[in-house]
């Protein structure tokens, strides 16, 4: 593979590609050869970063349930081993568990590798890397792929990997989460502190099935009605993705059908989650941020919550006027919100939570790690406490105003230099809004417009996609009929951009 081929595998701070045939028009580009070279490159990169020889490095490697995982794992292990690294195979794992393998005393690896493509279809796969500082940055992935291009596949492929150590990381990780629940409830495991609670889990055949038999059941919870717990990388029931409508409908149905106190759904590698309340109401996007913030607020009064740019004015009201916290809307991208959270805390601003509407949520108390299972633990503790005092989990967010009307519109850019054209559109869009006297609150991404008049109430956000030649526009109206009025305003502000397809607004 050429350097150009390898660099095309970069997806922000991860590596993503097509690992299997089966989807028309999608050619395999995440090959065993690529992973062989990437494994060797990570060995070199980590050696430079830690200033330790590769022979003195230990790296853990895990994977989710995708069927392409074992072959890609073997290739990565060969690449690492050929460069002298001691590799520990962790088998079926989660992305947060692979980071925690650097923290746990029983493992304390120098670095770790997770083979996953998150919620993407069965034919995709990818690689995430961690070191002691957390997940790698965009520039680090670029450097690793450039190093991979210089790797010799022949040398890497000749090494034997039959004697690699194996370690059951999920058992250690599950014990860590059980302990967090017991600590939160001031109880011992033997007391079965979740007795009396019914919690159903939908794993979508990803890697989160352990949450039922290694965490909830040992602590006494009734998990009957949980579904799709067996790992199956073809995802025969639904995509393991809390943002997918079919997936959310599946866990809503299971929660109501089984009269559960709480429903939980995870993505494939368990760094994201969402929830369903006992009445079947889904808790995602703004609502899940509100719920986690409400759980944290008593211990972090006046603190700052960082979110991505598409959160609503409803959430700002709830965070600031109800919980008396501060809301900082930042940029899309889970690494962006987490890095902002780290920056704020380092500067002395208490920031316990950074969370995207996608369900990526990082807690300061948990190594700034976006861990869906840990967020679920916080909810379970809050549920048990609420039930003990005769309340419900729903009561924590009862003052969050309901969503009335919303729309998301994606405008394709036909210009060859789509980033430059998108920047021109944003500049002109902002200029036109200023001339109309429209309020523009502080914003770190795109252009956000706020409407608080009697005629129309709501907001509009126009921004560039992180990777694609697309400009998404999110609109939310506070009252019935406001969405249509806001769409008409957006149409007026977007007239005349010939290489921007806004036909979806009509």
Automatic annotation (TrEMBL):
Its cofactor is Mg(2+). The keyword Phosphoprotein applies. It holds the Pfam family PGM_PMM_II. Residues 12-148, 173-279, 285-401 form the Alpha-D-phosphohexomutase alpha/beta/alpha domain. One of its GO terms (biological process) is carbohydrate metabolic process. One of its GO terms (molecular function) is phosphomannomutase activity. The keyword Phosphoprotein applies. Belongs to the phosphohexose mutase family. It comes from Treponema porcinum. This is Phosphomannomutase.
